[in-house]
Write a structure and sequence with these properties.
Blueprint (H helix, E strand, L loop, with lengths): L3 E6 L15 E2 L2 E2 H9 L6 E4 L13 E2 L8 H11 L4 E6 L7 H8 L7 E6 L2 E2 L3 E5 L3 H9 L5 H7 L2 E4 L1 H4 L27
Parallel strand pairs: 1-4, 1-6, 4-5, 7-10
Antiparallel strand pairs: 2-3, 6-9, 7-8, 7-9
C-alpha cells in the first residue's frame, strides 16, 4: 500500500456555529483534536489547512494557509495536494469528531488507480472525507481558472471511484453517521457536555 498523507481542512468561517468550532471544547478537548486522534493511528503524516495558521500548535503537525484564499473546500484540497509529499492524500473536515477508523482503513486499501475515492450515500457525495491523487491538480487548476469552485465540477472531469451504500452499510447501519459533522451548536449530540 502506497503511503498517504492526511490533511484536515479547518478553513471554514463557522458562521452558523457562532465561534471557531474547530477549537470548541467537546468532551474535554477541542473538536479538531478528536479528528487528529482518530487519524494518528492510520497516518504517519497529518497536516492542517487553515485560514489562520497561528490558531493551532501541535507538535509534528504542520499548518498551511490556503495558497489561493477564498475558494472554499476546493481551495483547501488544492493547497493540500500542492504541499503533499505523497501521490495521494486523505482529506477530512475539522468538524467530524466521530471518524470511523475501520472505514478509513478500508478506503486506504482501495487500489490507487483513481483520481478520487469518494463516499456516496443515497446520492450524497462526501468530498471532505475522501482520497485525492495529485492527478487531480490539472483539473482543479482549470476549474480555478474558470472560477468554478464547486467540488462537484471536479467529479465531472476526474476518474472517480465511488464508495456506495452497499459498502458503506458494512461500517454503519446509517451511512450518514460515518460523516457526521458539527455545523452549529444544536448538531452536538445531547449527551455531550458543552463547555
Amino acid at each position: 500500500m502506497e503511503p498517504i498523507e492526511a490533511f484536515i481542512l479547518a478553513g471554514g468561517k463557522s458562521s452558523r456555529f457562532g465561534s471557531d468550532k474547530t477549537l470548541f471544547m467537546f468532551k474535554g478537548k477541542p473538536l479538531i483534536e478528536h479528528v487528529i486522534g482518530a487519524l494518528k493511528p492510520l497516518f504517519t503524516s497529518i497536516s492542517i489547512i487553515a485560514n489562520d495558521t497561528t490558531k493551532y500548535n501541535y507538535p509534528e503537525i504542520p499548518v498551511y494557509s490556503d495558497i489561493i484564499p477564498g475558494l472554499g473546500p476546493l481551495g483547501g484540497i488544492y493547497t493540500a495536494l500542492t504541499y503533499a509529499k505523497t501521490q495521494s492524500i486523505f482529506v477530512c473536515a475539522a468538524d467530524m469528531p466521530f471518524l470511523n477508523q475501520e472505514f478509513i482503513a478500508f478506503m486506504l486499501q482501495i487500489p490507487p488507480m483513481y483520481d478520487c475515492i469518494i463516499p456516496c450515500w443515497e446520492g450524497n457525495t462526501e468530498p471532505l472525507h475522501a482520497i485525492y491523487s495529485k492527478s487531480c491538480l490539472p483539473y482543479i487548476q482549470q476549474l480555478i481558472g474558470e472560477k468554478k469552485y464547486k467540488i462537484s465540477y471536479l467529479f465531472q472531469q476526474a476518474d472517480v471511484r465511488y464508495i456506495l451504500d452497499d459498502e458503506l452499510t458494512f461500517y454503519a447501519e446509517n451511512p450518514s453517521d460515518l460523516f457526521y459533522n458539527i455545523n452549529q451548536k444544536n448538531d452536538i449530540p445531547p449527551d455531550s457536555s458543552i463547555q
